[in-house]
Amino acid sequence: RTPPPKPAAQRAAPSKPPLLPFDETIRQARLFYKKKRYREAAALYRKLIRQYPRRYEPYGELGNIYYKLRRYEEAAKLYYEAAVRLQAAGLAAKAWRLQKAMERFAPRYARRLKQKLSSSLKKGRT
Fold first, then answer.
1. Does a structural domain hold residue 15?
2. Model pLDDT for residues 53-85, shown as the tens digit of each residue
3. Residue 71 class from Cβ within 10 Å (0-12 exposed, 13-18 middle, 19+ buried)?
4. Which of 1-5, 45-49, 96-100 is least confident?
5. The whole model's pTM is what?
């Protein structure tokens, strides 16, 4: 005979994977990048983006990998996301520097980013 099902409160909830420690993981990703082990670095940056979507660092650093690999469209998308998060973190000057750099290789994304950063300024955000 099978036991009756457990009440909902006693059933194990599907567990989420534990959060990666941000500082340790980004340090490891940077080490992979420095050693030109881009696949391993990119995998860690993607995990950080999923687990820490408000942090700007993994977006920019994954963008650096795509830029190195001459995958400029993908790099531009990530730089755009990094710049938006930089501005939200009160680092508007860095966001604008990133926008300026994008003008050389991704003018369409640079224009979109310029509009986004400018509209945020008009709304009183830094």
1. no
2. 999 999 999 999 999 999 999 999 999 999 999
3. middle
4. 1-5
5. 0.82
Q: Is residue 108 part of a domain?
A: yes
Token look-up 């995958």 returns: 71
Give the structural domain span for 73.
22-122
Q: Which residue has the tokens 């680092």?
A: 91
Q: Please tell me the total count of domains within the chain.
A: 1
b/e string for 49-58 if b means 16 or more Cβ within 10 A?
Answer: bebbeebbbb
Contact 114, 99 (CB under 8 A): yes
Identify the three-state secondary structure at position 35.
coil
Q: Which residue is it, tokens 């224009």?
A: 111
Tokens 């881009």, residue?
38
CATH number at residue 62: 1.25.40.10
Query: Is 50 among the domain residues?
Result: yes
Joined together, the tokens standing for residue 103 give 């003008």
Query: Length of the chain in residues, anyone?
Result: 126
The pair of structure tokens assigned to 35 is 């050693």
Do residues 29 and 57 lie in contact, with contact meaning Cβ atoms separated by under 8 Å?
Answer: no
